[in-house]
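Bug report (template v2)

What were you trying to do?
Predict the complex of my protein with pyridoxal-5'-phosphate.

What happened?
Run completed; filing so the output is reviewed.

Input:
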Amino acid sequence: MAQWTSAVGAAQLARQLQAQQPRPVGPGARRPPAYRALADGIRLLVLEGRVPVAARLPAERELALALSVSRTTVAAAYEALRTEGFLESRRGAGSWTAVPAGNPLPARGLEPLPPESLGSMIDLGCASLPAPEPWLTRAVQGAIEELAPYAHTHGDYPAGLPALRQMIADRYTARGIPTMPEQIMVTTGAMGAIDAICHLFAGRGERIAVESPSYANILQLMREAGARLVPVAMEEGLGGWDMNRWRQVLRDAAPRLAYVVADFHNPTGALADDDRRRDLVDAARSAGTVLVVDETMNELCLDPDVRMPRRVCAFDPAGSTVITVGSASKAFWAGMRIGWVRAAPDVIRSLVAARAYADMGTPVLEQLALNWLMRTGGWAEAVQVRREQARENRDALVAAVRRELPDWEFSVPLGGLTLWVRTGGLSGSRLAVAGERVGVRVPSGPRFGVDGAFEGYVRLPFTVAGPVADEAAVRLAAAAQLVGSGAAAGAEAPRTFVA
Ligand SMILES: Cc1ncc(COP(=O)(O)O)c(C=O)c1O
């Protein structure tokens, strides 16, 4: 069987190569030979995640034609990429992109550190904010008052407390998506929801199409479940979903699941418009793929003028294609560990049955607290506080990074909690290592990619404001200085990722 999971056409690759900025050539230096420039261009597209790993490249003759170069040039470029580990080939199966073993870092998720262990370190590792008080305290007090009837039961509710299932269902119905409580399962965070979905649908070796980049811990969860990830490159900026690519991958790789974060995508902050949402559902339906839509960031629209698109599940009235995942973690507080799944009743029944062997259920007190918040209007007020805080943090961070690191590039998202930053050619993995030395913890781009893509990026969350945001940017600039000067010892990746 071929080792590739998607394909890139000659015209598309030529367009992407031609759109690259030409690399400056120093005074007196000679331009690299054409084959070398082509190999470097392809390598950069792979490392930046714009051409996925395991994507079949066009035949030499086709690419030569599309680029108006000789076939020998393409053959020499492919040979150089093979030698460097960026291309694998097999007779009859073609050539597909790869990342050399050990370079860059192996894929990993994010590991939150206990806040008490951080000392003076500024932690940009987690995209989660402290609880919007006094709402957490009030909700827990409200929950304690309502606990007595549940205290008389065994307390195991694998599908969730009936009252909270009804509440969550009613909230979808109020948004024009009729939902019954039988379509809702309460989970231990969105992570618990996606874990259950992967176990039900995507066993070992099964393919899952994912945005590239995507949320690091979900990618890691899927890898550990034994799935084969099929990356679909996000467009530059906030455009997000290139529907031609999605249609092609869903058709060619026929993955069992596709996982998307259509609302303020983590890490890029992109927001899918109505047309892309409809097209994603249509493409998934045609391919027989279950579309898992993670709405964890849904309520974090930071600009009041933005009109939120319709929920993706609104384009799937029969409920046969889309499974929706929600969470209280970003809109309210991650410490609650409450998420949910909305799906067809038979899917919910299967998820509930499987869940009995995982965590049995979600704690009753937290479910009561969330139900209290949603019932009393506290949720809406808390979300409003959360949005204002995140907006203030975003604006402070953006200003500080622009001031201290003017050659770092990013698009300012309209919502969510993350800034996806191109680090001016510096290795994100080295920046992460150097950051630890100068007192700032920052996750490198490859954690959000499949198989080592995004070496030239870091993710910055909207979790600090005021002088802390300023100091974070000062420390990031110090880390960049260390990396740029070659003084960042112990780094595991090349200083710059461009040859
Ligand atoms: C897109 C996305 N999904 C899921 C999660 C995890 O959510 P939870 O805390 O509800 O498990 C996060 C957290 O950063 C996220 O950004």
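What did the reviewer find?
The chain has three domains: 10-97, 115-127+381-489, 135-376. The domain at 135-376 is CATH 3.40.640.10 (Aspartate Aminotransferase; domain 2).
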